[in-house]
């Protein structure tokens, strides 16, 4: 059994789609298309009448709905049909994040899920180190605090891995097909594809963008995929009128 990715060329590269019951990491720099690729994964589910949940630490519901509308995807319609649920974590105290996720999963019983992004989620590891009041600190405050204290080296530790691995275990137990996005800062190695993901995820896709002259070229690399006869290499992709298409 495979799970269609929602992206035509990508299904072909993956011998049909993601493996069933898998947790896939979508890594890449900012603006490389991680959020859009993930929304397209949920859209594919709606077309098959599968419930999809989008958990965001980064954008408001309005922004997400608007982004979808630009590709002609009517996520409000799917919400009304009880196929789509969006959970925004922007203003939630860190101690409550896992609880919130679990209760939304129990209630909605999604078959597909996206967490955008675990970069923000893992900031709670930082707070554990610094003994910040978890109940009263929001993700945004924490993110700002971590930036002021240039935290990247502190992240490069066991605490981050432990938190994320525990989180992935929760997802695996419930057999929800999940995409986790992660932002890779250029100068930093924490949360890179060979630290966290090698342990915890079933697959890793890497999105890249390269400026050449006045053009921005986009590319996708399948770094790893469990149980899949995948095609290796780096492939170009484009944003088309109705979403991302991988060129193979
Ligand atoms: N309707 C569109 N047509 C073409 N490109 C788009 C469209 N909407 C967004 N993009 C491109 O998508 C990129 C952002 O994608 P996004 O998934 O939000 O990235 P990420 O989540 O990796 O930061 C931007 O660089 C933008 O150029
Ligand atoms: Mg994004």
From TrEMBL:
Enzyme superclass (EC): transferase
Domain KaiC: residue ranges: 1-248
Molecular functions (GO terms): ATP binding; protein serine/threonine kinase activity
Coiled-coil stretches: none
Keyword line: ATP-binding, Kinase, Nucleotide-binding, Transferase
Domain of life: Archaea
SUPFAM superfamilies: P-loop containing nucleoside triphosphate hydrolases (SSF52540)
Database matches in Pfam families: ATPase
EC number: 2.7.11.1
InterPro entries in the cross-refs: KaiC-like_dom, KaiC_dom, P-loop_NTPase
Name the record gives this protein: Circadian clock protein kinase KaiC
Organism (species): Candidatus Bilamarchaeum dharawalense
